[in-house]
Fold these 2 entries.
Entry 1:
Amino acid sequence: MYTFAECRNLGDDFHHKVQEIIVSTLENVAKESQLENLPQDVKMLVTDKENVMHALDSNHKHHLGTLNDREQKLLTSVSSWKIAFFKEVHDKITQQNHMRISDIHRYADFLREQLEGFQ
């Protein structure tokens, strides 16, 4: 199972590999001058390296943000669960202690009555 830090590292590695592929592809297309065979919208995409890289970076930041949000939600949820769990345990132990103290008082009262009966 991956931790969130490992997932972020895998995301970073993926981002860098995709970035290398995009840069290489854009350079190859520019070198080979295959632009005349491409539709106009694709030409704009492959000739505007800055916008492509900006879109890639924005996508990567969005994925990291999503991962960070999920991590934060999980941590908040676990923290809330932990607080509720320990409160429940504390309340149960407190109730048990009160019952034991009541039992001790009843037993002490019983012994007192027994002693008074012998006198």
Entry 2:
Amino acid sequence: MGEHYLSFEDIQLKCEQLSDEYTIDEEKFYRIVEKWADEEVSTDTKLLASFSELLQVVSTEITCMEEHVQLESTCRLGCAFCCYFPIIINEMEAKLMVKSIENFPEDRRKKLEVHLVKYYEKHGEQLQPMMELDFEEDKNFKLKYRKSLIPCPLLNTDTNQCMAYEVRPIPCRTYVNYTDPKVCSDNLMPKETISFEFLYSEYMGALNEFLQFLYEEEGDTGFISYPDNLYKHDYLANWLR
């Protein structure tokens, strides 16, 4: 007998159950920035630590939701079909990612730097028209981008692993499959997959409140230009270029 997977209808029912029964613990997010606001460390350290811990809370919250409705992800190491979607983030997140990568151990950071140079050399020409897709007005931009089969700049296509996994953006960590993994290999945009991207509002709300506190109370937002960096959005591939 083959392995049994949840159907699309099963997944929909569990999502409805989540919506009816589960309440996101917003305090989990705000406790982190409140803790770091009181630490006697540099502003840059506060920002990077808050960023890292908030991302982890997003992942933890997803686990809590999965346990509540008995969902188990079928995503596996080496499966990277979702790493061919366009990722849109704001400039503040991009700066937090880049600064975090700069703090990677030297060998790992240099390996990623070399990878990015080769990535843009290989995909730059094909990537350019994709970067010009209007992600705010074009309702089909995701499908158009997905059809290009251009991998994420952070994907090591030899191992199918993210080279900055712990600081990957919210869309990456909130996109999950709970049915037959073949739906991802057989469909550019499978309907069966789930996005928990609604957690972005809790994550970004806490980050924004922290930056606002630093801006108004301490007059120091480190390497972030607040609030300007909050409102400018672009493709991850453009931020990392």
